[in-house]
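Structure (tokenized):
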């Protein structure tokens, strides 16, 4: 795999192929991704703690999978933008306490395609990876996810990685509608979903991580 290119992470890449992350480009892309992540979290999690944990967990999974350090770093930088499209969801739906109606749920699901539209067309590898993550982090390995019902390896690798990190952090966090699950219960849930919701190879890599340390990231 070539170092750190978006093409190496099987996401769209313009021609000529994107440059690897050079030292100079890293600073710009990191700053941009960090600021956009603040925007992404601003309306439903002003602390940004969920985004920070999803980033740390996603980067750790990528490393555990044996990806080059620079590719793992790209995924870690891009992961906090997974829900960027939620900035376009009306408060009445985004902040609703209680279950969503079917129509509201369909609007909520549009955060994937909306986020991808916000991020598309960039030459920056970090934004290309972020676009792929925004679009595919709710796809499922068995093809039952959204928005495009992709299955298996047709789901870009960064999207498959962030899917696990996102669900694990959601399960182990307090939300308005539920209490945090114990880590052991959340791990059992992720394990039970390998091969259906999640890529089994990535689940195996995820299960090798130090989960309690990763959840202390904020
Ligand atoms: Fe999402
Ligand atoms: Fe999330």
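Design, position by position:
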């Amino acid at each position: 795999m070539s170092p750190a290119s978006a093409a190496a992470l099987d996401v769209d890449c313009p021609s000529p192929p994107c440059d690897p992350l050079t030292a100079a480009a890293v600073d710009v892309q990191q700053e941009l991704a960090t600021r956009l992540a603040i925007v992404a979290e601003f309306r439903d999690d002003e602390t940004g703690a969920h985004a920070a944990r999803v980033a740390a967990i996603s980067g750790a999974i990528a490393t555990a999978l044996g990806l080059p350090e620079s590719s793992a770093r790209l995924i870690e930088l891009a992961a906090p933008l997974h829900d960027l499209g939620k900035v376009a969801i009306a408060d009445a739906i985004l902040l609703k306490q209680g279950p969503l109606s079917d129509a509201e749920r369909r609007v909520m699901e549009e955060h994937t395609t909306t986020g991808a539209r916000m991020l598309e067309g960039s030459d920056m590898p970090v934004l290309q990876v972020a676009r792929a993550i925004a679009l595919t982090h709710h796809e499922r390995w068995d093809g039952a996810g959204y928005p495009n019902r992709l299955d298996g390896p047709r789901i870009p690798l960064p999207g498959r990685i962030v899917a696990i990190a996102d669900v694990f952090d959601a399960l182990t966090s307090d939300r308005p509608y539920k209490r945090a699950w114990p880590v052991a219960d959340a791990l059992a849930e992720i394990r039970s979903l390998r091969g259906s919701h999640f890529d089994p190879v990535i689940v195996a890599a995820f299960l090798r991580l130090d989960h309690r340390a990763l959840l202390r990231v904020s």
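Reviewer-requested clarification: The CA atoms of residues 50 and 218 lie 8 Å apart. The chain has one domain: 20-215.
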